[in-house]
């Protein structure tokens, strides 16, 4: 009940301030499992295997933003995102399909009314969700490993804690 109240208060404050608008992970160096959604292709493009890429990312304390607004990977490349949460509140990272930001964000906001929303890390059970970490408590970190989609494009990543998605987001650019 306390978590629900905090989520609702955060949503209200977030909406008032910005009036414009799952895997299991243990703290420190564990691997997050992809969210139960359609998986991107796991085949590498071309005849030679690509070198895996690691993206280190952090939540900016007291700002509700990721420290990276974007990063670029190759289609079919193995990607590792190392996410740290030095902030005083919970955050996650959810990678979604291109063009699905509003749909996933609003579904995450709706989860604030779901008594089990926090248990689900506020990750909507939509096919537009590609991969996700669990909610990270302050001072926790997670590692999310996946294969980049085979289709080039811009894939948003957001924090789906209710209200956060409106400003706490970035873009993974997938190129050939």
Mind explaining what this structure looks like?
This protein is α/β, with parallel strands linked by helices. 15% of the residues lie in helices and 29% in strands. It has 2 helices and 10 strands; from the N terminus they run αββββββαββββ. It has helices at residues 2-17, 101-110, and strands at residues 31-32, 53-60, 65-66, 70-74, 78-84, 94-96, 129-132, 141-147, 153-158, 169-175. A 5-stranded mixed beta sheet has the order 1-8-5-2-3, with no helix packed on it. Residues 1-47 have low confidence and may be disordered.
Q: Would you list the SSEs in sequence order as H and E?
A: HEEEEEEHEEEE
The computed structural class is alpha/beta
Anisotropy-based shape: globular
Largest sheet: 5 strands, mixed
Terminal-residue CA separation: 47 Å
Average the pLDDT over all residues and give the rounded result.
Answer: 82
From the alpha-carbon coordinates, what is the Rg to the nearest angstrom? 16 Å
Please specify the SSE layout and strand pairing:
Elements: H1 2-17, E1 31-32, E2 53-60, E3 65-66, E4 70-74, E5 78-84, E6 94-96, H2 101-110, E7 129-132, E8 141-147, E9 153-158, E10 169-175
Parallel strand pairs: 1-8, 2-5, 4-10
Antiparallel strand pairs: 2-3, 5-8, 6-7, 6-9, 9-10
